[in-house]
Design a protein that fits this description.
The chain is of the alpha+beta class. It contains four helices and five strands, in the order αβααββββα. A hairpin with a 4-residue loop joins strand 2 (50-55) and strand 3 (60-69).
Amino acid sequence: MMESLTKRQIHYLTRSDLNVNQWDSLVRDSANGRAYALSFYLDTMTGGNWNAVVLGDYEAILPLPFRKKWGLKLIANPAFSQQLGIIWSRPVAPAMQQ
């Protein structure tokens, strides 16, 4: 199990570093994808203030919408976004979800 985890790297990417085509394809094709996680929706609702955690080559993604308060970035769901979370192409090991 640990060997497979080390082969797939987890990356923190800024919005400008994301591959939007791969991102949106995963959201559309996954069983647990929601419209709230599509890049254009996040861009619109956050003003482009979101980054992401990406597993491997977009095997799993986690959008991180943020806002600034007193100069600090705070993770916060944007308005009208009820469900954001890990989106995957195939189920992720429970140990990675914690």
